[in-house]
Amino acid sequence: MRFATIDFNGEPRAAIDFQSHYRVTPFGDLSQALRAFDGDVMALADITEFESVEAADATLLATTKTPNKIICLGLNFTDHVAEMRHDRPPFPTLFAKYPLTLTDPFAPIIKPTISNAMDWEVEIGVVIGKAARNVSEAQALDHVAGYTVVNDVSFRDYQNRTSQFLQGKIFEATTPVGPHMVTRDEVDDANDLAMTLSVDGEIMQQGRSSQMIFSIAETIAYVSQILTLEPGDLLSMGTPSGVGAGRDPQRFLQPGELMESSVEGIGALANRIVGPGSPMS
Amino acid sequence: MRFATIDFNGEPRAAIDFQSHYRVTPFGDLSQALRAFDGDVMALADITEFESVEAADATLLATTKTPNKIICLGLNFTDHVAEMRHDRPPFPTLFAKYPLTLTDPFAPIIKPTISNAMDWEVEIGVVIGKAARNVSEAQALDHVAGYTVVNDVSFRDYQNRTSQFLQGKIFEATTPVGPHMVTRDEVDDANDLAMTLSVDGEIMQQGRSSQMIFSIAETIAYVSQILTLEPGDLLSMGTPSGVGAGRDPQRFLQPGELMESSVEGIGALANRIVGPGSPMS
Predict the structure, then answer these.
(1) What ipTM goes with this model?
(2) Hey, are the CB atoms on B172 and A90 less than 8 Å from each other?
(3) ∠B29-B152-B262 over CA atoms, to 5°?
(4) Cis omega before residue B279 (within 30°)?
(5) 3-state SS assignment for residue A79
(6) pTM across the whole model
(7) Dist CA B128 CA A31 (whole Å)
(8) Taking a C-beta distance cutoff of 8 angstroms, is the pair B105, B179 a contact?
(9) Pick from A95, A101, A167: which is nearest to B166 by CB?
(10) Range scoring the smallest mean pLDDT among A96-105, B4-13, B45-54, B236-245
(11) Domains observed in chain B
């Protein structure tokens, strides 16, 4: 099953994708919907009160804009660790984003004037279903509602100003997420999917999630020892090699460029970079 | 004026402190109340529908449990930077916490079995009032609703597992916040307040917020260039020297110990450390 968050008369609403049309729920996004159903994504499919929107008329929004937690993995792909000249980490490297950092799957993204090192990172997003606390690796995937695509757009100059990545990872409305959430039962093995990022059609990243150092189940089990993963929380699993900061010479995003991020079987984002004075911004 | 979040028939509610009694609002905590009034804390005082609770009967809860963002400063006190053997940073070092990490001002705090390096950090908490985006340092304090006390309890073993502090800063229900929020007009200069932390009555930290490298206004102005600070967001301004990890020999919190954190004119937290099997846990 595929879920999305779509525009409904100017308001975001979680919706179920029936190919020809979307069944629109009363919830403002998928995280709100999952919280209302204690993370039971299949129960969400059973709701009896809904509106319909034709697929052709649907504007797809960020699958989630209200996760209680966004937890991202850094340095989680063997080849990306090498290009960033880091050692292979013995533990998952975790950092946060904020809800306001998220944006829609096809939204233009403003290049802030204060950063000159705007970079891409295609990632697999994991949306938590049922709450997870102290779960084993074997149980962990039972707590996944589904998968989505995240582009962890990063501002390397800010990321490297201090020891902590956070400030380079949280610029407002710069992390697109979507366009759908594909439920776990429809994905054979999220730990082995092709991932691609292109800029103006030129392929920059081409990896597979099999290169992940910490799997999705390992990460959920690890984090759940620290605090409860709640329905609608978003994990972003890290990126393969090919980021702009790792290239020689380095290359960063400029206004006018089109950035496309895709994960096999999950979906694709397409975001135009715009200047702060652009009519699209 | 002083605000708090108190227990009202088993539910948390934002409330106004009238010394003899609390005026109880319909909002679940101060962040929810501030969001409902676009951050106008004084408008919140004017609401006409409320319940009353006698001060003697009030149980004080975390001033906020639902901030959209918790942004913490690391290495922000000159003497703490020295004890942690870091260089004085040219930019604010920012990291996040999650709402689920927060707990009540007098709650017992469970020492997790997986960490053996549970440490204290008394801090000034800044609750954002009106939204702040690209504000100047001169305007920044107009966006502060008030101040509260935060103990940024940190798990040094997890904090140092990777380059990113996050996982050592987010253990569930380990960061007490409260017991009141004192509005900005009642605090002469939040950048010059005495701060104290004791364990079983022994003073461990005794500093002044005048030692902060980045002031509250500088921090708000800086972050507001990156993303909007929203009503009810919580900033935690960093800690002075005297943390357990900086002592020789190092000293970490053990079950049974009572940790008291106070900021002059703002308030004091008192939290007993308990083991995971404790009847209080």
Answers:
(1) 0.96
(2) no
(3) 80
(4) no
(5) helix
(6) 0.97
(7) 25
(8) yes
(9) A95
(10) B45-54
(11) 2-61 (no CATH), 70-274 (3.90.850.10)
